[in-house]
Structures are given as C-alpha cells and as structure tokens.
Amino acid sequence: MHNEILRVNKLNVSLNGDEILKDLNFSVKKGEVLIILGPNGAGKTTLFKSLLGLLPYSGEVIWHSKRISYLPPRELIHRKELPPLTLEDFFKFKKVSSYKIAKILNQVGLDPNILKKGFESLSTGQFQRMLIAWGLVDEPEVLLFDEPAYGIDIGGQETVYSLLQNFWKEHNLTILLITHDLSIVWGHADNVLCLNKNYYCYGKPQEVITPKELEKLYGTGIEFYEHSHIGS
Amino acid sequence: MHIISALILGAFICGAAGYLGSLMVTKRMSLMGEALGHMTLPGIALAIIYGFDISIGAFFFLLLGIILIWLLEKRTKLPMETLAALVISSSLAIAFLFLPEEETINALIGDISKITMVDTITTVAFSTIIFLAINKVFSNMIFVSISEDLARVSGINISRMNLIFLSCIALVIAIGVKVVGGLLIAALVAIPASTSKNLGKNLTHYSYGGLLFGSTAGVLGILGFQLTGIPAGPLIIMISAVLFLISLIFVK
Q1: Residue-range definition of the domain harbouring residue A114
Q2: CATH class belonging to B3-248
Q3: Least CB-CB distance to B152: which of A54, A68, A85?
Q4: pLDDT at B214 over 90
Q5: Are residues A179 and A151 in the same domain?
Q6: Structural Rg of chain A based on CA atoms
Q7: Which of B142, B153, B154 comes nearest A83 by C-beta?
Q8: How many domains does chain A have?
Q9: Are residue A211 and residue A111 in the same domain, yes or no?
Q10: Which of B27, B29, B146 has the most A C-beta neighbours within 10 Å, making it the best mutation to test the interface with A?
Q11: How many CA within 13 A on the CB side of residue B226?
C-alpha cells in the first residue's frame, strides 16, 4: 500500500524466556491514530520498544519513515540526581533552531522563558506539555507516545489529548498511543490494538471495543459505557 | 623541577580531571574512581623499582583492573560498590608487598619534584585530547542518564561512547597519579565536580566549572608546595575541599 507507514508481520518478542508478544500482525497508514490498549504487563511498552529496535524480536517491522519520535512513559525519564540541567539543555539534544523551540513551546501553551528553568522544577502538567513540545519540535512524521496522560488530573489529560489532536490535524502526524484510558478511544482512534500477553485484537474501535472483547482483555467485571459526548 | 612547567602540568591535568569528573559524578562513579586509583599502586611500585615512567605502570595496571572488575561483575553479579571495596584493599595490600619503604609515601600521595619537561609536554597533550574527547560525548552521556531509550532512538551509540569515557578515565588516572598519587586521585575527579554542582545552573556551567575548580586547585596546590614544601598532592586536594566548602554557602 502506497500510504502505509508501518507494517508489522508475525512479530514475536520474548524477554528472559517469557513470551510477551506472539504472532502480532497489523499495519498503520500515514496520518492514522492507532491506540494500543491493554492491562498492565500486557506488553504494550515492549511492543513500542520492539518497533523502535530497542529490543530484540523476530518477525518483520517495516517503517516507511525515518522521522520517528518516541516519548517513553514519564516515569522512565529520570528527573532526579541529574547534573544542573535546564530545559534549554534538554532541547539542545534535538539540534533544532531556538526559533522552532520557542514556536512549539507557544503552541503547547508554555512561555519560552521556561527554557531557563531547571529540568526538575516543572509541575507534572507542565512537564507533559514540555515533553510533547520536545517530541514534536523536529517535525516527526510518526509519534509513539507511551501513556501520555498517566498521573495527570482529568483537566490535564484533556489538554494533552487536545494538544495531540491539534498537531495531528495540522501536520498529518501518524500517532501510536499507549493508554489505559478507554474513554479516549472513541474520540480519537482510527484503529485499536488491544493486547494481553498472547491474546490480541485489532480493528476499528466500534468493532473491537465491545463488552465481550473487553472481558477477554481485562477479565470480567469491567463496566462498559458508550461515551457519546467525547470526541472532536 | 621548573615551577612554570609544573604549574602548566598541574593546571592541565587537574582541569581535565575536574571536567571528566563532572561526568563521573553524574554516572555515580566516584567510588569507582577510588578503586581505579588504588589499582595503579602495584603499577607505580613496579615503575619505581625498575625505573620506568610511573604513568605507564599505572596505566597497565588500570587496564588489568578494569578487565578484572568487568569479569568479576559478570561472573558474580555483586554490586559495583562491593567490588570496589574488594579491589581498593587488595591493590593496596599488593602494593605494600613490594613498594620500597622510602618510596611508599610518594606512590600514595604523589611527587611533583621529579616531574620533567617531557612529563609536562605529554600531560598537556593528553589532557587536551581528554578534554576534546569528553567534550564530544558530554551531552550525549547526560542524555543517556535521562533516558537510555530516548538516547538510543536518537541514534546514539552507547557502547562506543562508554569506551571513549572509560579510556579517558584510565588516562586521567594514570597521569594524575604523578601529581596526587594513587590514594588521592578519586578526590581529584570528584571534588571539583561537586563544587560545580553546587554552583552551576546549567550543563555548561557545571562541566566548565569542574574544569575551572580543578585547575585552580592544581595551580594553587603547586604554588603552595613551592612556598611551604608540603607535598603538592595533599595540598591540591585540601584546596579543592576548601573550594567545595565555600561553594556550600551558595548552594541554590
């Protein structure tokens, strides 16, 4: 397919002898939003790491883009016990002009003066906005974002998702998003990939997110409401 | 010993050690520096007995030591801190076996009175190489400390970077033992960086602060030796410690 940006064929990943992902097949089109859903320990982060070549795997991962940006779960970004580091230092890792940095900070609603602040001094909400700016400042075609809203209050979560949606609309960004949060699926996803160890399902949200599939994914006891008010 | 020549040597190697130290402190390798410093002692002893350059003996034993620690860590899965303790004491014990008694103190705390013009020239050359190499990997090493995954996705070759870093550590220690000896070398890398961490607001301040405080202590220590006759090694470390104490007043 000419507008395919990622194809995954028979992806198998084992860690320390444990089979985490088994025979996974899916593809992502340019400009698509794919949500990856599943309980803790299902292998969602492992999937991202394999897609990025950070973990050994068997099978095929074919990217039709070199401009891939990755934002790991926030708790995997060390903010303590670092040398004195300003946000300016952090943005220098990206090697882009200061004009672009200021511009994108404005777009995520942060004052560019924040660059002089220490890396550890931001609040959780500010840090997440800053991270989105950092991930997108070099204009990637694809963004892989692991748990964007983890640990953020509801107002903050909405900000994060609406920011992502703005960038998606403006730049035809392809987004792969890991989340726990079922409610965002309806509003933003083109496709959903649900993972739980050796089980997975894949398809359009309305086909995949059924009470039956959720029960298979999370076990019994999940309450299911269709949120008609969420979305663009 | 010509005083100007000694001052140049001190400024360069102590500056390089302080600059490198800012990375070692970030990587929590100060104790490792202590272990490596002690490992040079048997090499220094052999160099004194057979009359070859102390740094060459030290460097050879450092290489042996790094391989030994690497093997021990792989085989035993003991924490680095335990291995460091093991290495520190055994190297000291081995060195005492055959270190000539009248030379013991020089091996432990350094002796700049024997430094020659050739030493100064090679030290300046190596210190410059170390500075340039660390300057090249510095920001990427910090990036890895923040998130190894992010750094790898950005295309950073971590093992190549670590190799450069370890080689610089071995070089700084091998050269530094001439000035401050095997016992004090860890302080040469750790203290200037700690001072700089207290004062610095960003990465540039922090790394160049390490260089500046290292160099300052080196120069003042050697001047102090010239004036008082107290060995330069302990003087350099004491001045470094005083600078650190002063920096405490300004801790943010």
Answers
A1: 80-138
A2: mainly alpha
A3: A54
A4: yes
A5: yes
A6: 18
A7: B142
A8: 2
A9: no
A10: B146
A11: 14
